[in-house]
Every structure is written in C-alpha cells, then in structure tokens.
Amino acid sequence: MATAAAGALGLLWGWLWSERFWLPQNVSWADLEGPGDGYGYPRARHILSVFPLAAGVFSVRLLFERFIAKPCALHVGIQDSGPYQPQPNAILEKVFISITKYPDEKRLEGLSKQLDWDVRKIQCWFRHRRNQDKPPTLTKFCESMWRFTFYLCIFCYGIRFLWSDFLIMFVHHLATIGLITFSYINNMVRVGTLVMCLHDASDFLLEAAKLANYAKYQRLCDTLFVIFSAVFMVTRLGIYPFWFCMSSGPT
Questions:
Q1: Which domain holds residue 106?
Q2: Which residues bind DNA (predicted)?
C-alpha cells in the first residue's frame, strides 16, 4: 500500500513539474541549476531578501512623507487639518458602527424621534462621520508624492542598468507577485525586469498629476494627465504588444 501511494505521488509530482509544460524546448530543470564555474543562478531562497528590503523601503517612506512630502504639501497651501468632527452622540455612533453607515429614510425618522433632532441634522452627522474615516488631503498628497518619487527613481534605475538593451527595454505587463517570483526562480530575470521597467514609465506621471490636483494647480494637472495618457497608450498598447511580444522568444 505504501509503495503504491509513493508511486502515485511520484507520478503526480512529475506531472506537476513537467518540463514540457513549464520550460521551452531543449531546456531541462538541470539546466537551471547553474554552470559549474561558480556563477549561481537565482534560487528560491533569494526571495527571503524581499522581507528586509520591504521593511527598509517602508522605513524610508515614513521618513520621506514626514520630512519631505509634508513640508512640500504645506508649502503649496494644503492645510494640516483633519476632517470635520461631528458632535459626539452615543446613539448615532452605535448605529454607525454596529448597524449601518448609510441609514435609510425609515431609520432616520426613528432616530429623529428618539433624539429630537431633525432628519437633515442626522444626515449631516452621518456624512461627517463617514468623512472622518477618510484620509485627509494632506495624507493623500504625501502618499502620491512618495509614489511619484519611488516610480521615477525605479524607472531611472532601470534605464541606468539596462541602457545596453534600450531598444527592448520599454515593455509592459501586469506582474503579480506569483509571476515575479516564478520568473526569478526560473532565471527569467532579464525579461521580468524589462516588463517592470516599462510599467514604471507612466506611473510617476500619474502621481505627479495627482500632486498637482491636490495642490489646486488644475492646468498643470490636466497637462500631466494628458502626458500620462499618451505614455500609457504608447507603452502598453504599442511597444508591448507590437514590439516586445512579437520579437521575444526562447533564448
């Protein structure tokens, strides 16, 4: 029984990691082990470095938003003030938390009789209470400024280290964590890096447009959004399908 179970498990494992399904022709899993000259190919254990790297990036983001983005927001006139605080009311707060944040007309009338408030006042209370949970404009400005800076730096970094491959650098694909991990483990680093670099080509423009919008610079916001739209369409609807996908193949 144990031998039969082990044999069935072996067949399942072999089918799951079939070289015919996962790898190009004339490539085997042994080819991905790396040459014997000491040069190592990517390994699954390398993914562990993502965790300290993520912690470091998060720390840099906190410092950036506090000491750079926030002063910039205040400089352009964005106020450091939270949303309007509604009048404290235990009954309405209980309804908001436990029952609904959007009371219907029947419930509004019942609350009006219970509290001796008019319906309009209760509606305003719920609206202000909902807005209280939303991030203020200052927070959104700092977040967008961080994204703008991050995407721009990553894009410039990609250009710096992929300059010899400039003709095929601008590629795009929506890379999920699973695809990034699998492509790295299977030594598809070059293709994955190119795809992510193309994705970053337009992201920082969108965040710059958001910064201008939060600062009430509408003309600058419109201009940046038009540029973002143009770059987005050229890179994702032009370069990626007609240049990269048609020219790429097994190497």
A1: 84-133
A2: 94-137
